[in-house]
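I keep forgetting this: the sequence line spells out the residues, with the fold written below as integer tokens. I include a record here:
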Amino acid sequence: MHSNHLLLEEPIRMASILEPSKANFFPAMTKIVGTLGPKSRSVEAISACLKAGMSVARFDFSWGDSEYHQETLENLKAAIKATKKLCAVMLDTVGAELQVVNKKETAISLKADAIVTLTPHQGQEASSELLPINFAGLAKAVKKGDTIFVGQYLFTGSETTSVWLEVDEVNGDDVICVIKNSATLAGSMFTLHASQVHIDLPTLTDRDKEVISTWGVKNKIDFISLSYTRHAEDVREAREFLSKLGDLSQTQIFAKIENVEGLTHFDEILKEADGIILSRGNLGIDLPPEKVFLFQKAAVHKCNMAGKPAVVTRVVDSMTDNLRPTRAEATDVANAVLDGTDAILLGAETLRGLYPVETISTVGRICFEAEKVFNQDLYFKKTVKFVGEPMTHLESIASSAVRAAIKVKASVIICFTSSGRAARLIAKYRPTMPVLSVVIPRLKTNQLKWSFSGAFEARQSLIVRGLFPMLADPRHPAESTNASNESVLKVALDHGKASGVIKSHDRVVICQKVGDASVVKIIELED
């Protein structure tokens, strides 16, 4: 993997671009989050998605009930068992999402320059002149001249089902708008986005809380994607809520930045959250188009320096209906990887797209190619400079392990960890080789029963770039004092060999705790 590491700054022989890439056990260091839905919820479909490179499955509660998602999750468990590939679970909340209510699901035709009224009276039928919405406070939030976007749920931008409205006047609770483009709204659910307008709805709604405390608790979810995060307080409130739900106190909160409010408070949100999801669909409506790339680069850089995963959405919209991405989309995925993104999140492409498996493998291949030209040396120096001196003990060990691995051209870094923190810190320095995170389970008790921790920590590294977890057997010592073959290190090396990452005479860097000390050591494998 290290030998074919190129740099964009170096001259590249053009003919070499056409050389086929070597097959690799890990499709890419960058992770792929897939949203499971109608086109990707059977055991066969999910198994194919896992084999193609999906490592986190997203369950979006904006649509579908708990029973529907439970059925999908049971299929995911069966697929994990069949493919022997780990997969984490992400629950995506509804949050402060505005929706058009179209009970009869009849197609609504809207003509440019005509007038349409948005009303909070949900009992009324949706028509070309009247669109009922699920929020009573819109009239108080908007003013004449404001822009409102209405689009199919998980709109891709290519549909003729998206319409721009301009507020003409506010009449009591109703908002009267001029239609800016002709479109046909078809289906039961449309999301409504008021550009740069504060919506006075809670980030964690009562329905979200109910879903988390029932479906979430039952399934011990690994991540919560907190939709419409606007302030650090949103994350604090969500964490306080999770802390009272037993195992969910370990669930990581990913703040989903969807509007200008979230952008304005980004730094304090990043401090509180475990990771960030850049929801570029809604951000693309809230921000001028020419500013979106700038926010992406700045936000991803801040996440990288904080050592927290950055997830980018809405990359290959056209693959919802097509087998190949556009040139712009392929370049966009590569640029996200070069910016330092940890994971790519696929929404409509896997939820209702025609080619979920092909989309995952295509994105994975693009990520793999982009990683080969990622300037790790420059990134490493920037990160060390940003962290400054004196470094913390753990940060020093992590950066030293990465530097050693690159200097000796190690094929893999193996990190023993119980909380996952050490492995995440190593990944923060973006080594050019995979990091095998060996999670050592810890025995814990709630005074009623004993249990082992570790499964959460292992799955939660499935969203971190370059980190590949394995859960160790708690009976195996992390450091074998005798020559027995039962040491976890041997198990990890065997796993590496079986997956083709490690070969005879390869060098491997190992990061582990021995007593109270943290040790980085380099071993060279024999035949």
